[in-house]
Amino acid sequence: MKLGVNSVLFSGYDLKTAIRYIKFCGYDGIELSSIVGMVEHLTDTASDAELAEIRKMVEEVGLDLYCVEAATNILVAENRERTKRVFERAAKLGIPMVTTGSGGKSDDEESTEDSIRAIEELTQAANDMGIQYALKLHYGQSIYNTKTALRLMDEVKHSALGLNFDATHVGRVGDDPVEALDVLSDHIIHSHIRDTFMEQLQIASPPEFQTAGRGGTVPLKEVVDKMTEVDYQGGATVLEIIGAKDYELPEITAIAAESKGYLQRLIEEAKEKRGGNSSVKSSSCRCW
Predict the structure, then answer these.
(1) What is the 3-state composition of the chain as percent helix, strand, coil, each rounded to the nearest 5?
(2) What was the pLDDT predicted at 283?
(3) What percent of the chain has pLDDT over 90?
(4) How far is CA 162 from CA 177, 217, 271, 282, in A?
């Protein structure tokens, strides 16, 4: 099971800096942030020359490119067109998938139907580009818990569509994240991981308290144990920590490094629990 970092943690710095310090902290790969209003380490207008430079930077340090996070309200037509342009650039970089939330409003039938139609459109666009679309279960949006995720996967049966699982989101809406992981495991193709206080509906915790192992209420050990138990066909778990734009570089690096050490220990303990021989397989076309 490989560990990566979403470059949103380094939102106050350029991509070259993010790549350097993610590698220094011992991670295997990176998820590029393409989030308007937060940080666009990959833009939807990146030229072929700019894409070649990104590829060169990651290859020089030996990082894999796991995913692009392009969070946006996909119910807005203009945002869907932007997402399609991100798909195109991800494909050119050899990145296997792009993730967004569903947009919409939780427990609103009309909004949910609109979200599913938008997801269908984007799934086909991703497929046309030869990549996958990882739909993130997100608090407050149409697809936000186990029930709505199962509905989506039942209504949109397409090999290019999978789920992005984040225990902090499903836990905040009342689902047990370990049980949700078990139920949804056949559909999960990507994962974000962090700590926080799940009792807070909004992630109000500062970045240091999203650091894996800092004592939040996310059952990270149980989540990692379940990930290992169900043998995901994938290999990457991506640390996603938001809100660090104004943090100094040593502080950000400490957050990444501390999380790496803690999560790596959980992974090794989970493997040992299963007899030291996890059957999780790496894949160049899927990550989770």
Answers:
(1) 45, 15, 40
(2) 36
(3) 84
(4) 17, 26, 25, 17
- 229 phi and psi angles, rounded to 5 deg: -60, -40
Helix/strand/coil for 194:
coil
Q: How many CB atoms neighbour CB 56 within 10 A?
A: 9
Burial class (CB in 10 A: 0-12, 13-18, 19+), 110: exposed
- Give the SS3 label for residue 155: helix
Asked whether 130 and 63 are in contact (CB, 8 A), the reply is no
Q: H/E element holding 248?
A: none
DSSP for 15-47, written as a single string: HHHHHHHHHHTT-SEEEEEEETTTEESS-TT--
Rg (CA), the chain: 17
pLDDT at residue 280, as a whole number: 38
Measured CA to CA, the distance from residue 140 to residue 163 in angstroms comes to: 17
